[in-house]
Amino acid sequence: MRKFWVVFLFSLLLVGCSASGKPSNVSDEIWNGGKQYTIYINKIVEEKGEADDNFNDTLLSFLSSKSESEMSSKEREIVNNLRFLNLNFLKVRIAQLSGGDTKESLKEYNKYYDKMEKIYGKSNLVASNLDEDFIKKSLVTQVTKKTANDEGIKEAYMSEQNLSLTANEVSYNMPNNLDKPFFIEGEVKLCNYYNYGFTNEKDLFCGQLTPTNGNYSDSWYLYFHRESFDPLYQKLINGGTSEVMVTAIIPSRAYQSGQGNMARVKHIQFK
What we know:
Elements: H1 2-16, H2 28-47, H3 55-63, H4 73-98, H5 103-120, H6 132-160, E1 165-166, H7 167-171, E2 182-191, E3 204-211, E4 220-225, H8 230-236, E5 241-249, E6 262-270
Helix pairs in contact: 2-4, 3-6, 4-5
């Protein structure tokens, strides 16, 4: 009888887990992703290093790759623990970078790391098991998705506003593109620059926009009607910035030969 129970329990273990220790009710994608992202995060915490700029978006994409209703209970456990591990990882990094006390944030971080250790086993989460090719491929995939998504949003906005010109085209041929609406997108902040025909501070406020994938030298000084664009003004007044897509125009009445990148805003959409 004893032999029967030993064989029976051993059979259950074989059915419940794969050769790699993966439970049968967990997909390869979630099992491997949960393991690799946990190792990657913990390596950064231990080394006080820096995560790739696209890592958080990559992880969020992984966490939402399968709806909760489609997950098994074990998959939900992995995903939820990883979600809270990442949240507390961000708190730890903020404390580390600011020179603050990491005691409390590390305590919470370790709580969720311990939970992941119980799922995967301590030896499976050592830094030497990090699959760097997996991480790199995940990051590249996320950048590709984001680029395609951003391009789709840009094209939809330009179509909706009936735009064919871009700021880049206008800046290189300004005299021939006066009074023609054009598209520009990027990060805008409040500034006090007024020049040429845009000197009506009573009715206008000025924002300096650095184009997406551009730099300071590519900036545009955009002039917004105060009343029409008050929601943006309120966002910027305390030193904040905002990501926007803009329909702008250079009025011929305000244009002076040789001027820099200055235009009047007709419409915006927050990103």
